[in-house]
Amino acid sequence: MFTNGFSGTVYQGDTIECEVDGFTVTATIHSDDDTTPPWERQDGNGPVSDWRRRDWAGRYEKAPGELMLHEDRNRDARFYDFAEACRMARRDGWGVAGGKRDGETARQCAARAAMADFERLRAWCRDDWQYVGVVVTVSCNGIKLTDSYLHALWGIESDAGDYLTETANEFIDDAISDARATIASLAA
Cα–Cα distances in Å, from 65 out to 50, 77, 123? Predict the structure, then answer.
């Protein structure tokens, strides 16, 4: 089992290792090449607009209740429909860190949940986190015994910390079993 785990935000190439029954087990972080934005990739996010260009006066067409999510180098922008996200959060019972606070109304709690969603999506737009995969391989005496991507899970948020380590730990037994099978087939 991996005793030294992934923590904080991980990056391409980060690794952890452990020794199990004479095998070296390595978990490596790889960037997920699916760059679909989170609001298109998963449920539970507020609505995000397509890219919008500035008008001739340098302004964006923005509806009431929208917040600028991201502006690119060309000064095109995407907007987050905060008003609709609040309605969705209230209707669907979105959770929020710390739960509902004492004295907080349902609308206030929904607004806090929508703001947390907005900030999370904004962080992705700023490249503060990305989707990654954790890949587990097994070697012995420097000889790799398992396929590079056979024991892997993709689409994990790069700041998932302990979850990345837990996922890597779940692959250890199967990866070692495959390494033993490789050794057996080479010995036959």
Answer: 16, 15, 20
Task: Provide the CA 122 distance to its chain's centre, in angstroms.
Answer: 13
How many whole angstroms separate alpha carbon 27 and alpha carbon 91? Answer: 40
Region of residue 25 (left: phi > 0; alpha: psi -120 to 50; beta: else): beta
Q: H or E stretch including 186?
A: helix 162-187
Q: pTM here?
A: 0.86
User: Are the beta carbons of 164 and 11 closer than 8 angstroms?
Assistant: no
For residue range 127-145, list pLDDT tens digits in order. 999 999 999 999 999 999 9
CA–CA dist 166, 122 (Å, integer) = 27
Q: What are the residues whose beta carbons fall under 8 Å from the beta carbon of 18, sequence distance 6 or more?
A: 1, 2, 3, 4, 24, 25, 172
